[in-house]
Design brief:
2 copies of one chain form a homodimer. By secondary structure, the first copy, chain A, is an alpha/beta fold. Chain A contains 12 helices and 12 strands. Chain A binds a DNA duplex through helix 2 and helix 4.
DNA sequence: ATCCCTCTTGTAATCGTTTCCACAAGGAGG
DNA sequence: CCTCCTTGTGGAAACGATTACAAGAGGGAT
């Protein structure tokens, strides 16, 4: 693979001139530039990003550590992140933590070893000092979707969406349909999205004079299996809930499994709703009512915030509202057939 | 961020010794090694992967270019690839080509600029000389899932799955259920998976004495929208097909949309089957019969082949069989309820 | 005492860029 | 004609690691 020296020799100039020509440095003659460009073309020269990074101390690469690639919510997020990053001239390396703190640490370590310019993290459960230490050590970090409470002393913007309003809408929707015994399958208490959603749900219930008994709080881990188990426990209760709200899409899927396995039907026997809307919810039987985050916008905003920090500007936290998307899984006041207008 | 020099100073040895201690070079005294390790610990030193790569001319990084991250099939593949790579001591950078040749080229260029050690590609439609040129230029390349025909002169192993047998099973299944007019929604003819699946389908039909008229071949692009459009065209036919086979999961989804939008029902009014099984197909209404590729195994085998090539061993192409998973979308001879045993 | 290993260490070259500095050439202004 | 800019260029020093080579120390055999 030809190097800058080969180009220089071929163009009859020095390596310095080649470098300048390629980096559109102003002081290089039109003639030299042309010769360099020609040589580059002839040799098929491509600058070595590794060497360049070593010299300039920047890799133009962002790290993205997410908790579960297989979760459609995160794939959509990752896609948006990559697009915006590319538009801004950055590449993205994705690390999949699989909801395991030690894997998250592995990826963070790997990414800082590679000297990425900044880090985008949706932290998993569990105490990992490494992440905060990294931020403290000077690597620009932005949290997206979830965040870690102890981040006050170090400047880490949080880009997330607020589901409070949408949860209120959901509870009102359920209430209107006559449901009174409402349960939730929560995420890990250690994640912010885990605890927040329970709180929002509890508050919304209170506004209707309803309680959230402990028996109606299932402990999940954002994976389908836990959703199924929690739902089975609900169904075993002497007085099972009339509606179940899953704190993410995978657990909702598990819940759907569980009620089906008992020969029960959604929404006739029990209503179901989920946090995180995903394309598949349109096609499930029945289509499930969900709270939709502006996922793409979240990803883009996060990248912009991170790049702002990287390039020396100040970055602010961003909170975008989520909204309720009513389908059929809670009962018949939503759309009964897919509507033409809801086509993409 | 401390460098190897700082560690050397702190440990009272030379940088060479530090490097040797860290790379478990045999000839370094127990005492020196201990001092180095202590210094590393105290300073929180992490070796700079960029500098190391420049010197050693290897990045221990693999590039993975796939055609669509949002497609669950590819996310699963990506996940398996990352896992196997990690086990072998490599990192993975994913590039999402979004079924667009120019984006694919962008990523390939970006990856070779970063001097990745090897490239895993599931090529998109369309002639892109860059990919083959890269392979010819010496970068180890392995094709996964799809491949490019002109790759004979250059050593590029192909890791894929053969759906021929499963397609025969599917057609037999459909035939047994009484379906005679069978249609297919094909992928882009330029992709191997696009054309191969049509051929397999046609052959399987022939075995039952059935034809595949042109009107029953829909042209899709592996995206949901094209599946919907193709299905609408089928339904507008004077004699619409009794069963539709979509060549990937996204187009199957589009097909499902289309028949629902007409107020028709699967499988009563029309049967549906898909290539690529994904977790969601269990939960759709109705659960859809699909041909399952051993996706994880494919990803792992591809990584092993690529690493073999990188590390100087010879790599062989791999073909794994796919299998038919019968559910309810073709009619009632499959499982009518989710079975306990099919639980993960 | 000399020679020759082996074991451990340090010095310095190297990877492919970018960029600081010096310098030559040419034009403008005195 | 000298000085002072401006413009374009090349030489060489970084960046932070790995590694070839040289060399000192110690030990055993002669």
């Amino acid at each position: 693979m030809p190097g800058i020296k080969d180009v220089a020799a071929r163009a009859g100039v020095s390596v310095a001139t080649v470098s300048r020509a390629l980096n559109r440095h102003p002081s290089v003659s039109e003639e030299a530039r042309a010769r360099v460009l020609a040589a580059v073309e002839e040799l098929g020269y491509r600058p070595n990003a590794v060497a360049r990074s070593l010299r300039t101390d920047q890799t133009r690469t962002l790290g993205l550590v997410i908790s579960d690639v297989m979760n459609p919510y995160f794939t959509e997020l990752a896609r948006a992140v990559e697009e915006e990053a590319r538009a801004l001239g950055y590449s993205v390396i994705i690390g999949n933590a699989d909801e395991r703190p030690e894997l998250q640490d592995h990826h963070i370590r790997n990414l800082v070893d590679r000297r990425i310019d900044g880090l985008l993290v949706s932290p998993t459960d569990g105490g990992t000092p490494l992440l905060l230490d990294t931020a403290r050590a000077g690597t620009p970090v932005v949290f997206v979707d979830r965040w870690i409470p102890g981040a006050d002393d170090v400047d880490v913007p949080v880009v997330r969406s607020d589901g409070r309003g949408a949860v209120r809408d959901l509870v009102a929707h359920l209430h209107r349909l006559g449901h009174r015994r409402l349960a939730i399958i929560a995420g890990p208490a250690a994640t912010t999205t885990g605890s927040e959603r329970v709180e929002a749900f509890r508050e919304a219930l209170a506004a209707h004079g309803l309680e959230l008994p402990d028996a109606y709080i299932g402990q999940g881990d954002f994976q389908a299996g836990s959703g199924r188990r929690a739902t089975e426990r609900f169904l075993d209760l002497p007085e099972p809930p009339e509606a179940v709200f899953a704190a993410d899409n995978l657990m909702a899927l598990g819940a759907l499994d569980a009620v089906r396995a008992r020969g029960l039907r959604v929404p006739d026997d029990i209503a179901l709703a989920a946090f995180d809307d995903i394309p598949w919810f349109v096609h499930t039987g029945p289509p499930v009512t969900a709270i939709a985050q502006p996922t793409g916008e979240l990803g883009r905003a996060a990248v912009r915030a991170l790049v702002d920090r990287i390039e020396g500007r100040t970055a602010r936290s961003v909170t975008l509202p989520a909204r309720l998307v009513v389908r059929r899984s809670c009962g018949e006041d939503g759309e009964t057939h897919p509507q033409k207008r809801s086509d993409p």
